[in-house]
Amino acid sequence: xxxxxxxxxxxxxxxxxxxxxxxxxxxxxxxxxxxxxxxxxxxxxxxxxxxxxxxxxxxxxxxxxxxxxxxxxxxxxxxxxxxxxxxxxxxxxxxxxxxxxxxxxxxxxxxxxxxxxxxxxxxxxxxxxxxxxxxxxxxxxxxxxxxxxxxxxxxxxxxxxxxxxxxxxxxxxxxxxxxxxxxxxxxxxxxxxxxxxxxxxxxxxxxxxxxxxxxxxxxxxxxxxxxxxxxxxxxxxxxxxxxxxxxxxxxxxxxxxxxxxxxxxxxxxxxxxxxxxxxxxxxxxxxxxxxxxxxxxxxxxxxxxxxxxxxxxxxxxxxxxxxxxxxxxxxxxxxxxxxxxxxxxxxxxxxxxxxxxxxxxxxxxxxxxxxxxxxxxxxxxxxxxxxxxxxxxxxxxxxxxxxxxxxxxxxxxxxxxxxxxxxxxxxxxxxxxxxxxxxxxxxxxxxxxxxxxxxxxxxxxxxxxxxxxxxxxxxxxxxxxxxxxxxxxxxxx
Length: 493
What we know:
Strand order of the largest sheet: 1-2-3-4-5-6
Number of helices: 13
Number of strands: 6
Shape: extended
């Protein structure tokens, strides 16, 4: 009967403390990197703190799949590194307790985490990613805060640039407005001595009031004579001019249903249904395309077999010797037949390229969904693998603290990230099947975890520099002796 002993609670307490600390640190670092990528959608938009807090919460949930394996690796490495550095691991082993018995409470805890990670990625993550990307799209469409700087162009209004030399309270002085809403070839330039800006009551329009100025409008589209090189324009002098511009300052959320059919918003059941339904569509479309090419383009035309009165299931095209038929023609017929063949080949190439484009969409759709389906499981498996890499490695190097464990963990995680990203791209581009690409990192790291666990169980010192120096000296001496033996044999001949 399994009973919790003091050693179990001691190791579990140390691991959980380090795990929570490293998990929060990893989330913070990844969140900063994520915010740096999307800083343009947040800065200068004037969104409320409630919207920003939603963004942070959904971003944190979306970063859990990347932070969780790294935290497990770092926590297990630090836990067993501390035990080895303080000689606690040696004392426990001297009492006849094996490494697997020491790791038993943590193995149970990691299995629970793996199960929780699966349910998280299957139920929580799709909702968080849907809300996060909906919020990001909404923030991208949000107009920036209206604040015209002095001495530089303000381009926050779509199609309009405003330049102001001086401000006095709410009055803008020495203004220049470039209106490119009609295109760069039909720009309108306005200069004014002063002006004011105010919003409409619904905050969707910007009223620009100009005083004592001129406007120059390009009338290139209204040019009458094509031979004339001059471009007409219209000049207007005004005392008061009002311009109404579209400038929606409200934060309008997109409907989450826009991402309903995307792979990031689905669980395993929904992904499976989408894969099955779209795969049938892709297969049927591919079958129809190949049938059309054989009938219309390969055989010549659809009623070709009917004209020759040949059963399509028994026809033998090899009985026609095309070379002898072509050589029996006269020169004019040869040229004509060659031109017709080239034209048909080009037509078939165009049809094949068009069919490829038509197939790319459903095939890519299925591939993305299969990648997401496999990702639900790779997260849980990666947590288990990283524990069996970190715990034995910590027991072997016997270095605690935050120095050596962090360096080793970062190197190992970068190695994992490069392999995982490579497999993802190979699966996404169709070079490999999706399960091969998505399970590539697990297939490479699993033998490493088994090897490190075996070495830790037998108390091997794989990171002992003296051992590698001795091995190098042995190899060097053998190489020199082999080289000298060859020289002696060459002299004897």
